[in-house]
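Lecture notes, unit on protein representations.

Consider one protein chain, 265 amino acids long.
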Amino acid sequence: MEIGISLSNTSVLATPETLLGMADKAEELGFASIWVGDHIALPYTLRQPYPYSRGAPSRAWIAESPIYDPVVLMSVIAGRTQRLKVAVGVLVLPYRHGVLTAKMAATLDVLSGGRLLLGVGIGWMSEEFDVMGMRFSERGAVTDEQIRLFRELWYKEKPEFHGKYYNMAGMTFLPRPRGKIPILVGGNTLPALRRHGSGRRARAPTSASTHTIPTGAPPRRASSAAHGRAHANQSPCRERSIAEVAPTSSSQADQSSTVKRRRFH
């Protein structure tokens, strides 16, 4: 089992000294990975409650906190560490152009020596989509297409992609990642679970409790089999358990929740 630690980059406690000091300490103590989150701009008043609060008060106080960009922060951490994997849980894919995100991820993976873990999600805060002129209702479709786009750009010598939102042909895309970048799907809705079951991807940890998983969620084996994942009668995937130590709010800092997830290679 590998143990990762959550680094709150959207918090009143998030200062350069704290963030980088925690990263240094995490490597010194032998943690396998360090996780950051993703927000762009936060409203003073939320239209809807934070979906992973598990009944706790809304995190409106976070609007007064600094928000450090996850890709930039992971790059800085990777540059000052040697072994620690850098991870985002999750990067909200619709916030950024798919080709640009693929470029940033591939670059970070190469420069870090293959230490990137890419958690992805569709986002939940409609206010952020509004301020960037994006359609909140299409975020799931955009996310699905970006994941397909990543695979084409990262692993094909002459990539070509034609979708609803992205088109690319007759152009190079370099550098390519050092190996396979693990894509970990966040969320606890039925579409997120199906996204998790599609292809060789794992589910990113969230703070949702088991009772929030929707009724009718497809069993892991059935969902995975429908998308061609290997099982007993096929070539088996190698499996590793990983735990993330992740306080979900400042009020829960003394009750760190450990969430297990599995990665498939």
